[in-house]
Amino acid sequence: MTISELYERYLQYPSVQTDTRKIQVGDLFFALKGEHFDGNQFAAQALELGAAYAIVDDPAAVLNERCLLTSDVLQTLQQLARHHRMQLKAPVIAITGSNGKTTTKELVVTVLSAQYRTSATEGNFNNHIGVPLTLLKVKPDAEMVVVEMGANHIGEIASYCVIAQPDFGLITNCGKAHLEGFGSLEGVKQAKGELYVHLRQNNGTIFRNADLSYLQEMAAGIEQQITYGSSNAQVIGRAVGDDAQLKVAVLTSGMETEIQTQLVGNYNLPNVLAALTVGRHFNIDIDTMKQAIESYTPTNSRSQWIERGSNKIILDAYNANPSSMKLALENMARLDANNKWLLLGAMKEMGQDSLSEHQALADLAAQLGFKNVVLTGAEFSDVQHSFLWFADAAAVAEYLEQSPIMDSTILIKGSRGARMERVLDAL
């Protein structure tokens, strides 16, 4: 069966699933393989649950005419998504970066949705499966499409650009993340820069943070660049005040206003400015954007502000790397608050730099004057420090239940694998 023929089936049944637990009547089931599972084994179950067709790549899984055999299910899923994307009239905006890409994506979607029918990546479903599934959820009447692209090795973003064919691109930043896969900071830049390569080759447009000089270097040769930043940019804004939650003063002529966000930390300023820049390019007025951004409430352990009992908590435990940790600690140091605590989980995928980066983090906490610091995870076990250390978040929670923290401002941050949100119940 050709992709064009499969696309005809998709147009009849435009709902795609890869998990039989989520099957609804009329879905297309793609029997993906994983390290510990083979979706071909669930094809019969998918059909019993009401799937219209099961796309499989094991001849033994072909039970009847509703099982469509292909050579590689994942490749077929990606090709189908690319074919669908090529039929769409809506512009596609791709977002990647080491830090802040999901928050930026959510803010961009919030702004665009105020005026346009907008389809976007759900959560951070931004990998080799998530990108095609995101595109296959886009309805024909969509007016904007926003696709988040994550990566942990070189060549990954380029492959997603082949599928999504973005017209616009935004790299939030390039920091020390996934060093195990990228090898170095230069490797990170090369990988994230694959988005710029695609847009350069296809006469696309980028939204660029003018405060990051390396992005200007990476963007050389791209004719259409729209900039944002704290100065010397087309959209200029600055953080004002010293409250935990970010307030942005927009200074660009015709856009002058103040936006009180529900995001914690001045490090979210570029994310807000990026959303404003995208909205401005698509002719959304500043009052509409202000209302949209002020109504956005962060979720899923990203820059959340939580008041629990006598404590005020900054929960930012979805992701962590040296760049984002440094920003979070510096922001915490600036806060006008008493009794500050840092509950820090380990940073994953640091490769051979793990010990040195965790040592640098502990040193930074000491240099900034923090006294109440809890380090969590095996990655900190060989680090020299004077703080508390626990093997995992469960042990931290047990400690906090026995030694409660009260009347304090607390930062909880760590990589997803550290699961630092588990300490919340003990606060």
What does this structure look like?
It contains 15 helices and 19 strands. The protein folds into 3 domains: 70 residues, MurE/MurF, N-terminal domain (Udp-n-acetylmuramoylalanyl-d-glutamate--2,6- Diaminopimelate Ligase, Chain: A, domain 1, 3-Layer(aba) Sandwich); 208 residues, 3-Layer(aba) Sandwich (UDP-N-acetylmuramoyl-L-alanine:D-glutamate ligase); 123 residues, Protein-Tyrosine Phosphatase, Chain A (Alpha-Beta Complex). The protein is α/β, with parallel strands linked by helices.
From the structure above, extract its key features.
9-stranded mixed sheet; Protein-Tyrosine Phosphatase, Chain A; 427 residues; 6-stranded mixed sheet; 3 domains; 21% strand; Udp-n-acetylmuramoylalanyl-d-glutamate--2,6- Diaminopimelate Ligase, Chain: A, domain 1; 19 strands; alpha/beta; UDP-N-acetylmuramoyl-L-alanine:D-glutamate ligase
At the fold tier of CATH, the topology name of the largest domain is UDP-N-acetylmuramoyl-L-alanine:D-glutamate ligase
Number of helices: 15
Structural domain count: 3
Roughly how many Å is the radius of gyration? 23 Å
Report helical residue fraction.
25-40%
CATH architecture annotation of the largest domain: 3-Layer(aba) Sandwich
Write down the overall geometry.
globular
Number of β-strand runs? 19
Lateral arrangement of strands in the main beta sheet: 6-7-5-8-9-10-11-12-13
- The percent range for strand residues is 15-25%
Low-confidence stretches: none
Distance between the termini: 57 Å
